[in-house]
Amino acid sequence: MYTPGLSAPPRVTEGASMSNAQTILITGATAGIGKHTAIYLHKKGHRVIATGRNERALAALRELGLSTVAMDVTSRESIQRAVESVREMTDGKGVDVLVNNAGYGLLGPLEELSDEDVRAQFETNVFGLLAVTRAFLPAMHARGSGRVINVSSVGGRMVFPLGGAYHATKFAVEAMSDALRIELKQFGIDVSVIEPGYIATEFTATTVAHARKYQRPDSPYASAMEIVANAENTVAKLAVGPQSVARAIEHAATSRWPRARYVAPFYNALGPWMISMLPTALTDWFMRRAAGLYARKQLASPRATA
Ligand SMILES: NC(=O)c1ccc[n+]([C@@H]2O[C@H](COP(=O)([O-])OP(=O)(O)OC[C@H]3O[C@@H](n4cnc5c(N)ncnc54)[C@H](OP(=O)(O)O)[C@@H]3O)[C@@H](O)[C@H]2O)c1
User: Fold this and answer.
1) Whose Cα sits closest to atom 17 in ligand 1?
2) pTM to 2 decimals?
3) How many domains does the chain have?
4) Is the Cβ atom of 206 under 6 angstroms away from ligand 1?
Protein backbone atom coordinates (compact mmCIF):
# COMPACT_ATOMS: atom_id res chain seq x y z
CA MET A 1 0.00 0.00 0.00
CA TYR A 2 1.21 3.49 -0.79
CA THR A 3 2.20 5.73 2.09
CA PRO A 4 2.57 9.35 1.03
CA GLY A 5 6.25 10.24 0.94
CA LEU A 6 7.30 13.65 2.09
CA SER A 7 10.40 13.81 -0.08
CA ALA A 8 10.48 16.20 -3.02
CA PRO A 9 11.16 14.79 -6.49
CA PRO A 10 14.83 15.26 -7.25
CA ARG A 11 15.63 18.25 -9.43
CA VAL A 12 17.18 17.42 -12.80
CA THR A 13 18.98 20.58 -13.75
CA GLU A 14 21.07 19.67 -16.76
CA GLY A 15 19.58 19.40 -20.25
CA ALA A 16 18.89 15.97 -21.72
CA SER A 17 21.88 14.64 -23.60
CA MET A 18 21.21 13.36 -27.13
CA SER A 19 21.35 9.78 -25.83
CA ASN A 20 18.64 10.17 -23.17
CA ALA A 21 16.37 12.59 -25.04
CA GLN A 22 12.86 11.13 -25.06
CA THR A 23 9.92 11.54 -27.41
CA ILE A 24 7.21 12.73 -25.03
CA LEU A 25 3.56 13.24 -25.97
CA ILE A 26 1.45 15.39 -23.66
CA THR A 27 -2.34 15.64 -23.81
CA GLY A 28 -4.01 18.93 -22.91
CA ALA A 29 -0.77 20.81 -23.60
CA THR A 30 -2.51 24.00 -24.73
CA ALA A 31 -2.79 25.49 -21.23
CA GLY A 32 -1.72 25.19 -17.61
CA ILE A 33 0.33 22.24 -16.40
CA GLY A 34 0.46 20.56 -19.82
CA LYS A 35 1.70 23.68 -21.62
CA HIS A 36 4.24 24.53 -18.92
CA THR A 37 5.56 20.95 -18.85
CA ALA A 38 5.74 20.78 -22.65
CA ILE A 39 7.87 23.93 -22.85
CA TYR A 40 10.00 22.86 -19.88
CA LEU A 41 10.76 19.42 -21.35
CA HIS A 42 11.39 20.92 -24.81
CA LYS A 43 13.95 23.28 -23.27
CA LYS A 44 15.58 20.26 -21.60
CA GLY A 45 16.24 18.79 -25.05
CA HIS A 46 13.42 16.26 -25.31
CA ARG A 47 11.27 15.92 -28.41
CA VAL A 48 7.89 17.05 -27.15
CA ILE A 49 4.69 16.41 -29.06
CA ALA A 50 2.18 18.83 -27.59
CA THR A 51 -1.42 17.86 -28.24
CA GLY A 52 -4.74 19.58 -27.63
CA ARG A 53 -7.90 21.05 -29.11
CA ASN A 54 -6.97 24.71 -29.31
CA GLU A 55 -5.29 25.25 -32.71
CA ARG A 56 -4.14 28.78 -31.87
CA ALA A 57 -2.40 27.57 -28.70
CA LEU A 58 -0.80 24.70 -30.66
CA ALA A 59 0.46 27.19 -33.27
CA ALA A 60 2.09 29.26 -30.49
CA LEU A 61 3.88 26.11 -29.27
CA ARG A 62 5.09 25.38 -32.83
CA GLU A 63 6.56 28.89 -32.89
CA LEU A 64 8.64 27.83 -29.87
CA GLY A 65 9.93 24.79 -31.78
CA LEU A 66 7.69 22.08 -30.30
CA SER A 67 5.96 19.47 -32.43
CA THR A 68 2.18 19.55 -32.18
CA VAL A 69 -0.73 17.28 -33.07
CA ALA A 70 -4.42 18.09 -32.71
CA MET A 71 -6.18 15.72 -30.33
CA ASP A 72 -9.45 15.83 -28.41
CA VAL A 73 -9.25 13.01 -25.87
CA THR A 74 -13.03 12.50 -25.95
CA SER A 75 -13.06 11.73 -29.69
CA ARG A 76 -11.96 8.24 -30.80
CA GLU A 77 -11.53 9.52 -34.39
CA SER A 78 -9.34 12.40 -33.21
CA ILE A 79 -7.21 10.01 -31.12
CA GLN A 80 -6.82 7.65 -34.10
CA ARG A 81 -5.76 10.53 -36.37
CA ALA A 82 -3.23 11.61 -33.72
CA VAL A 83 -1.78 8.08 -33.51
CA GLU A 84 -1.32 8.07 -37.29
CA SER A 85 0.35 11.51 -37.27
CA VAL A 86 2.69 10.44 -34.47
CA ARG A 87 3.54 7.21 -36.32
CA GLU A 88 4.60 9.28 -39.34
CA MET A 89 6.51 11.83 -37.23
CA THR A 90 8.45 9.10 -35.42
CA ASP A 91 9.11 6.77 -38.39
CA GLY A 92 6.80 4.17 -36.88
CA LYS A 93 8.52 4.16 -33.47
CA GLY A 94 5.76 5.88 -31.52
CA VAL A 95 6.37 7.84 -28.33
CA ASP A 96 8.70 6.89 -25.49
CA VAL A 97 6.53 8.65 -22.92
CA LEU A 98 2.81 9.39 -22.86
CA VAL A 99 1.67 12.07 -20.40
CA ASN A 100 -2.10 11.91 -19.86
CA ASN A 101 -2.72 15.41 -18.55
CA ALA A 102 -5.93 16.67 -20.23
CA GLY A 103 -8.70 17.25 -17.73
CA TYR A 104 -11.02 19.70 -16.08
CA GLY A 105 -13.00 20.09 -12.88
CA LEU A 106 -16.75 19.88 -12.42
CA LEU A 107 -17.89 21.33 -9.10
CA GLY A 108 -21.37 21.21 -7.65
CA PRO A 109 -23.49 19.21 -5.21
CA LEU A 110 -23.72 15.60 -6.42
CA GLU A 111 -27.46 15.76 -5.76
CA GLU A 112 -27.87 18.52 -8.33
CA LEU A 113 -25.29 17.83 -11.06
CA SER A 114 -26.89 16.64 -14.28
CA ASP A 115 -26.16 13.11 -15.48
CA GLU A 116 -24.93 14.67 -18.70
CA ASP A 117 -22.32 16.81 -16.92
CA VAL A 118 -21.11 13.96 -14.71
CA ARG A 119 -20.80 11.69 -17.76
CA ALA A 120 -18.91 14.40 -19.66
CA GLN A 121 -16.54 14.76 -16.69
CA PHE A 122 -15.79 11.02 -16.80
CA GLU A 123 -15.59 11.09 -20.61
CA THR A 124 -12.62 13.49 -20.47
CA ASN A 125 -10.84 12.63 -17.21
CA VAL A 126 -11.29 8.84 -17.24
CA PHE A 127 -12.47 7.34 -20.54
CA GLY A 128 -10.42 9.83 -22.57
CA LEU A 129 -7.30 8.95 -20.59
CA LEU A 130 -7.95 5.23 -21.06
CA ALA A 131 -8.64 5.59 -24.79
CA VAL A 132 -5.45 7.61 -25.38
CA THR A 133 -3.40 5.11 -23.33
CA ARG A 134 -4.76 2.15 -25.30
CA ALA A 135 -4.07 3.95 -28.56
CA PHE A 136 -0.39 4.64 -27.81
CA LEU A 137 0.45 1.37 -26.02
CA PRO A 138 0.85 -0.86 -29.14
CA ALA A 139 3.99 1.02 -30.26
CA MET A 140 5.43 0.68 -26.73
CA HIS A 141 4.68 -3.05 -26.79
CA ALA A 142 6.41 -3.34 -30.16
CA ARG A 143 9.54 -1.63 -28.78
CA GLY A 144 9.40 -3.44 -25.43
CA SER A 145 9.65 -0.15 -23.54
CA GLY A 146 7.70 2.97 -22.68
CA ARG A 147 6.27 5.10 -19.93
CA VAL A 148 2.74 6.23 -19.17
CA ILE A 149 2.38 9.15 -16.78
CA ASN A 150 -1.13 9.93 -15.59
CA VAL A 151 -1.89 13.34 -14.10
CA SER A 152 -4.27 12.61 -11.25
CA SER A 153 -4.52 14.93 -8.24
CA VAL A 154 -4.10 15.01 -4.49
CA GLY A 155 -7.88 14.99 -4.95
CA GLY A 156 -7.46 11.42 -6.18
CA ARG A 157 -6.82 10.40 -2.58
CA MET A 158 -8.96 12.84 -0.60
CA VAL A 159 -12.33 14.43 -1.20
CA PHE A 160 -13.64 17.97 -0.80
CA PRO A 161 -17.39 18.56 -0.73
CA LEU A 162 -18.92 19.78 -4.02
CA GLY A 163 -16.05 18.06 -5.80
CA GLY A 164 -17.61 14.58 -5.74
CA ALA A 165 -17.76 14.16 -9.52
CA TYR A 166 -14.22 15.44 -10.11
CA HIS A 167 -12.75 13.41 -7.24
CA ALA A 168 -14.53 10.29 -8.49
CA THR A 169 -12.71 10.68 -11.83
CA LYS A 170 -9.35 11.12 -10.13
CA PHE A 171 -9.94 8.15 -7.79
CA ALA A 172 -10.66 6.21 -10.99
CA VAL A 173 -7.41 7.45 -12.54
CA GLU A 174 -5.53 6.27 -9.44
CA ALA A 175 -7.14 2.82 -9.58
CA MET A 176 -6.59 2.40 -13.33
CA SER A 177 -2.97 3.56 -12.97
CA ASP A 178 -2.30 1.03 -10.20
CA ALA A 179 -3.70 -1.76 -12.36
CA LEU A 180 -1.85 -0.59 -15.49
CA ARG A 181 1.44 -0.27 -13.57
CA ILE A 182 1.27 -3.89 -12.41
CA GLU A 183 -0.08 -5.24 -15.73
CA LEU A 184 2.39 -3.45 -18.01
CA LYS A 185 5.65 -3.89 -16.04
CA GLN A 186 6.25 -7.31 -17.66
CA PHE A 187 6.34 -5.59 -21.08
CA GLY A 188 8.94 -3.00 -20.02
CA ILE A 189 6.34 -0.25 -19.67
CA ASP A 190 6.36 1.86 -16.49
CA VAL A 191 3.31 3.71 -15.20
CA SER A 192 3.45 6.65 -12.78
CA VAL A 193 0.83 8.92 -11.27
CA ILE A 194 1.36 12.63 -10.68
CA GLU A 195 -0.70 14.12 -7.86
CA PRO A 196 -0.63 17.90 -8.06
CA GLY A 197 -1.84 20.05 -5.19
CA TYR A 198 -3.47 23.38 -5.96
CA ILE A 199 -1.65 24.76 -9.01
CA ALA A 200 -2.12 28.19 -10.59
CA THR A 201 -3.45 27.44 -14.09
CA GLU A 202 -6.65 28.05 -16.07
CA PHE A 203 -8.19 25.20 -14.02
CA THR A 204 -10.02 27.43 -11.50
CA ALA A 205 -11.50 29.71 -14.17
CA THR A 206 -12.72 26.70 -16.17
CA THR A 207 -14.14 25.04 -13.05
CA VAL A 208 -15.96 28.19 -11.94
CA ALA A 209 -17.37 28.62 -15.46
CA HIS A 210 -18.69 25.01 -15.46
CA ALA A 211 -20.20 25.50 -11.99
CA ARG A 212 -22.07 28.68 -12.98
CA LYS A 213 -25.22 26.90 -14.06
CA TYR A 214 -25.50 25.28 -10.62
CA GLN A 215 -25.53 28.65 -8.86
CA ARG A 216 -29.25 28.86 -8.17
CA PRO A 217 -30.59 31.12 -5.43
CA ASP A 218 -33.35 28.58 -4.68
CA SER A 219 -30.86 25.74 -4.11
CA PRO A 220 -30.20 24.53 -0.54
CA TYR A 221 -26.52 24.65 -1.58
CA ALA A 222 -26.66 28.30 -2.71
CA SER A 223 -24.27 29.68 -0.06
CA ALA A 224 -21.74 26.89 -0.68
CA MET A 225 -21.92 27.50 -4.44
CA GLU A 226 -21.28 31.19 -3.80
CA ILE A 227 -17.97 30.19 -2.21
CA VAL A 228 -17.18 28.26 -5.40
CA ALA A 229 -18.09 31.30 -7.53
CA ASN A 230 -15.57 33.41 -5.57
CA ALA A 231 -12.79 30.83 -5.77
CA GLU A 232 -10.60 33.01 -7.98
CA ASN A 233 -10.51 35.73 -5.31
CA THR A 234 -10.06 33.36 -2.36
CA VAL A 235 -8.55 29.84 -2.48
CA ALA A 236 -6.96 30.38 -5.91
CA LYS A 237 -4.57 32.80 -4.21
CA LEU A 238 -3.08 29.79 -2.40
CA ALA A 239 -2.17 28.08 -5.68
CA VAL A 240 1.49 27.76 -6.63
CA GLY A 241 3.15 27.67 -10.05
CA PRO A 242 3.34 24.45 -12.12
CA GLN A 243 7.15 24.05 -11.89
CA SER A 244 7.10 21.28 -9.28
CA VAL A 245 4.60 19.30 -11.37
CA ALA A 246 6.78 19.67 -14.50
CA ARG A 247 9.80 18.43 -12.52
CA ALA A 248 7.85 15.47 -11.17
CA ILE A 249 6.78 14.57 -14.73
CA GLU A 250 10.39 14.92 -15.87
CA HIS A 251 11.54 12.52 -13.15
CA ALA A 252 8.82 10.01 -14.04
CA ALA A 253 9.77 10.30 -17.72
CA THR A 254 13.55 10.07 -17.42
CA SER A 255 14.60 8.51 -14.13
CA ARG A 256 15.97 5.00 -14.21
CA TRP A 257 13.67 4.29 -11.27
CA PRO A 258 10.39 6.13 -11.88
CA ARG A 259 8.16 6.22 -8.82
CA ALA A 260 4.61 4.91 -8.70
CA ARG A 261 3.42 8.30 -7.35
CA TYR A 262 4.64 11.87 -7.15
CA VAL A 263 2.92 14.47 -5.00
CA ALA A 264 3.74 17.95 -6.32
CA PRO A 265 4.57 20.15 -4.50
CA PHE A 266 5.61 17.42 -2.02
CA TYR A 267 4.05 19.08 1.05
CA ASN A 268 0.56 18.40 -0.36
CA ALA A 269 1.06 14.80 0.80
CA LEU A 270 0.08 16.16 4.22
CA GLY A 271 -3.62 16.45 3.23
CA PRO A 272 -4.33 12.77 2.45
CA TRP A 273 -2.10 11.75 5.37
CA MET A 274 -4.09 13.91 7.82
CA ILE A 275 -7.38 12.60 6.44
CA SER A 276 -6.16 9.04 7.05
CA MET A 277 -5.01 9.85 10.61
CA LEU A 278 -7.73 12.14 12.01
CA PRO A 279 -11.23 11.03 13.04
CA THR A 280 -13.69 11.32 10.14
CA ALA A 281 -16.15 13.30 12.30
CA LEU A 282 -13.47 15.96 12.80
CA THR A 283 -12.40 16.22 9.14
CA ASP A 284 -16.07 16.24 8.04
CA TRP A 285 -16.77 19.10 10.48
CA PHE A 286 -13.80 21.06 9.12
CA MET A 287 -14.86 20.46 5.50
CA ARG A 288 -18.44 21.54 6.22
CA ARG A 289 -17.23 24.77 7.84
CA ALA A 290 -14.79 25.51 5.00
CA ALA A 291 -17.39 24.84 2.30
CA GLY A 292 -20.27 26.71 3.97
CA LEU A 293 -22.23 23.47 4.38
CA TYR A 294 -23.56 23.91 7.88
CA ALA A 295 -26.50 25.35 9.74
CA ARG A 296 -26.83 26.34 13.42
CA LYS A 297 -29.73 23.92 13.72
CA GLN A 298 -30.75 21.10 11.42
CA LEU A 299 -32.65 22.62 8.50
CA ALA A 300 -35.11 20.76 6.37
CA SER A 301 -33.98 20.90 2.76
CA PRO A 302 -36.27 23.31 0.88
CA ARG A 303 -36.81 20.48 -1.56
CA ALA A 304 -38.14 18.20 1.19
CA THR A 305 -40.87 20.72 2.06
CA ALA A 306 -41.68 21.79 -1.51
N1 LIG B 1 -4.59 23.13 -11.42
C2 LIG B 1 -4.74 22.35 -10.36
O3 LIG B 1 -4.85 22.83 -9.21
C4 LIG B 1 -4.77 20.86 -10.51
C5 LIG B 1 -4.65 20.09 -9.34
C6 LIG B 1 -4.67 18.71 -9.45
C7 LIG B 1 -4.77 18.10 -10.68
N8 LIG B 1 -4.86 18.87 -11.80
C9 LIG B 1 -4.99 18.17 -13.08
O10 LIG B 1 -3.99 18.63 -13.96
C11 LIG B 1 -4.43 18.45 -15.31
C12 LIG B 1 -4.21 19.74 -16.08
O13 LIG B 1 -5.01 20.76 -15.50
P14 LIG B 1 -4.56 22.28 -15.46
O15 LIG B 1 -4.54 22.71 -14.04
O16 LIG B 1 -3.36 22.49 -16.30
O17 LIG B 1 -5.86 22.93 -16.12
P18 LIG B 1 -6.01 23.91 -17.40
O19 LIG B 1 -5.05 25.04 -17.28
O20 LIG B 1 -7.45 24.21 -17.49
O21 LIG B 1 -5.55 22.98 -18.62
C22 LIG B 1 -6.29 21.86 -18.97
C23 LIG B 1 -5.87 21.40 -20.32
O24 LIG B 1 -6.63 20.21 -20.64
C25 LIG B 1 -7.17 20.40 -21.94
N26 LIG B 1 -8.36 19.63 -22.19
C27 LIG B 1 -9.54 19.61 -21.54
N28 LIG B 1 -10.41 18.79 -22.15
C29 LIG B 1 -9.75 18.25 -23.21
C30 LIG B 1 -10.10 17.34 -24.23
N31 LIG B 1 -11.32 16.79 -24.30
N32 LIG B 1 -9.16 17.01 -25.15
C33 LIG B 1 -7.94 17.56 -25.12
N34 LIG B 1 -7.55 18.45 -24.20
C35 LIG B 1 -8.45 18.79 -23.26
C36 LIG B 1 -7.45 21.89 -22.03
O37 LIG B 1 -7.62 22.27 -23.38
P38 LIG B 1 -8.76 23.31 -23.84
O39 LIG B 1 -8.13 24.66 -23.66
O40 LIG B 1 -9.04 22.94 -25.25
O41 LIG B 1 -9.95 23.11 -22.92
C42 LIG B 1 -6.17 22.43 -21.41
O43 LIG B 1 -5.12 22.42 -22.35
C44 LIG B 1 -5.90 18.04 -15.23
O45 LIG B 1 -6.00 16.65 -15.41
C46 LIG B 1 -6.30 18.42 -13.81
O47 LIG B 1 -7.33 17.62 -13.32
C48 LIG B 1 -4.88 20.23 -11.75
Assistant:
1) 203
2) 0.93
3) 1
4) yes
